[in-house]
Every structure is written in structure tokens, then in C-alpha cells.
Specification:
Layout lengths: L4 E3 L6 E3 L3 H10 L6 H10 L19 H18 L3 E6 L3 E3 L27 E10 L4 E7 L5 H19 L5 E6 L10 H15 L2 E6 L9 H14 L7 H9 L8 E7 L11 H5 L3 E3 L7 E4 L7
Helix pairs in contact: 1-2, 4-5
């Protein structure tokens, strides 16, 4: 057991990675007949206990992480002074639609009975929520897709927000800032994402769009994660998401004491995965990378008057 044991230096509690049945077999080979339940009891007496993996070891911070955080702060201050929209965007975890167990607890006289297995084949469909959170106004819109989480879906969601809310809330504003994670459907390396912004926001609405991406592994700092998505999860915890209308209802009724209000709508459009964007299409983008971390920070402008 010497090389199979770890322990807490404060409490003296120990744990081993060997199963009790294997320990019993090894003891038997030494002439000691003992059952695995007896092994478990003896381990507890010796202050061993079952342990799970803990994510505690840091892989370290990239050298440019702090620089990007400072640049994002500067960008937010600049846009706030001008009264221009600042949007925190991201995809929320996909949800199976049906009578499935949902994490958390809810007040009920009796427990809600749900399916004993979460088989994808038993689902009515998949819900793919994409959030657009207005940082300055503490207002949000969540577009629930029935298809895939693609760059086109992400760009369409922001365009829907601008067409339905943004241009009314920010009349006369032609420049907006997007705060996004580094990967996923709105990742900084994603060609289709940049093309979608160019065509659907810049060219269609004459908008100038600046994008700043959070460094890898820092998505929890993106405001939408803790100001919107966590609140939605709290609102529907312990309640099965048995229909798309149920999902939309829980999103719409999400509230906080700081004044958060949320709109939601269903997007029935089918999106295709794996769309390839050619070098020629990328060459036609009117995009300018910023001097600070140019891969993570860039601005797209309308192409109508581009010379």
C-alpha cells in the first residue's frame, strides 16, 4: 500500500487508488483470507476514505493573458463613454428536450417522476441556446435553436438582436463591441464566424463591429456566463425541460435583484455543420486586426464604400 497511498497533511486522512477487491486478492496471495467488505472496514479504521479527482493543479497563465484583460477593460470603457452597445455573447450548454432529469432541487410536495435513462433517442429534440447580453443595460435575449450551434447561427442571433432590439435601444449608433470566448461557434480562429459578421451585420445594416475574445480557459470572466447563463440554470434547476415552450418560459422568467430581464425566441432554421470558407472569401472581408493581440482583437466594417 505504500506506493498506492495519498493523504491530507492537516487532517491525517488517507486514501488509496486500489479497489478493496484487489486488496483482498493480494492479501489472499499472502495467506490472509479476508473479504472486500472487511478490507473496506479496516481501511476506514486506518483513516482511509473514497476520494474523487479534484481540479486543483493550474497549468499556468499565458504570458499575454493579463494584457488581453486590460485591453478588454479599455475597450469597454471606450464604448461606454460613447454610449455604444457592448454585447457579451456565447452559446449555453445544449439541452435535451423531454422528460429527463435536470440537475438541482425544486420545492414540491412530491418528487417529479422523469425517465430512468437519458437516451438521446427519447428526446423530442435538442435545444441550442445562444445568448446576447447587453452589458450596460443588463438586458438579454436568448435564441433557442433546434439545429446545430454553428457560426452562422451565432451571427444570425446577433443580427436578430440588432434588428429586434439593438437599433431601437441605440438609435444612431453604428459601432458595437462584442465580447466573446476564444473558441466555439464564435471563436477567433473561425472563418465562418467572421464572414457571418461581415455579411449579416456590417454589410446588411452598415454596422462597424469590433470583437475582443477572452483568452483560452477564461470564459468564466465573460459577463454572460455569471450574469445570465448561471441565472437561467438556477431558474430551471430541478425541473424537467419537457418542451421547447417550457425552456422558453423559464428563460423569459429569469430575474435578478439587479434588474436582469430576458427575452427568448425559438429559431427553427436548420443550420449546416462544417461549412468551409475559402481564401478568396476571406480576402474580401473588410477586417482590420488591432495592434494589441491582433488574433483576439479585430474590427469589421461595411464593404459598400470600401476602396
Amino acid at each position: 500500500m505504500k506506493h498506492e497511498t495519498a493523504g491530507d497533511p492537516i487532517s491525517g486522512l488517507k486514501w488509496t487508488r486500489r479497489a478493496t477487491e484487489k486488496i483482498a486478492k493480494e492479501l489472499k496471495s499472502l495467506g490472509i483470507e479476508v473479504s472486500r467488505t472487511t478490507v473496506a472496514r479496516l481501511l476506514k479504521e486506518l483513516k482511509y476514505s473514497l476520494k474523487v479527482n479534484h481540479k486543483k493543479r493550474s497549468s499556468g497563465s499565458p504570458a499575454d493573458r493579463n494584457e488581453q484583460f486590460e485591453y478588454i477593460a479599455e475597450q469597454r470603457q471606450r464604448f461606454a463613454r460613447r454610449g455604444a452597445p457592448i454585447l457579451s455573447i456565447d452559446s449555453k450548454k445544449k439541452e435535451m428536450v423531454g422528460n429527463f432529469k435536470n440537475a438541482g432541487r425544486a420545492w414540491n410536495r412530491d418528487p417529479v417522476l422523469v425517465n430512468d435513462h437519458d437516451f438521446r433517442s427519447h428526446a423530442k429534440g435538442m435545444a441550442t441556446p445562444y445568448g446576447v447580453y447587453d452589458v450596460q443595460e443588463n438586458l438579454a435575449s436568448v435564441f433557442v435553436g433546434v439545429s446545430y450551434d454553428t457560426p452562422e447561427f451565432a451571427a444570425d442571433s446577433i443580427e436578430r438582436w440588432w434588428r429586434g432590439e439593438g437599433r431601437k435601444r441605440y438609435p444612431g449608433s453604428k459601432h458595437l463591441l462584442l465580447l466573446a470566448d476564444g473558441g466555439g461557434s464564435n471563436g477567433y480562429r473561425c472563418r465562418a464566424w467572421k464572414l457571418g459578421l461581415q455579411e449579416k451585420l456590417c454589410d446588411r445594416h452598415g454596422l462597424t463591429v469590433s470583437v475582443s475574445h477572452y483568452p483560452t480557459g477564461t470564459s468564466k470572466w465573460n459577463p454572460i456566463e455569471h450574469r445570465l447563463f448561471s441565472q437561467i440554470s438556477k431558474n430551471w434547476e430541478g425541473k424537467p425541460l419537457n418542451s421547447y415552450e417550457t425552456i422558453l418560459k423559464y428563460i423569459r422568467t429569469t430575474r435578478t435583484t439587479t434588474g436582469l430581464r430576458v427575452r427568448s425566441s425559438l429559431v427553427r432554421k436548420e443550420y449546416e455543420k462544417g461549412v468551409k470558407i475559402s481564401d478568396d472569401q476571406m480576402a474580401q472581408l473588410r477586417i482590420k486586426n488591432h495592434a494589441t493581440q491582433p488574433l483576439r482583437n479585430y474590427t469589421l466594417r461595411p464593404r459598400q464604400n470600401w476602396k
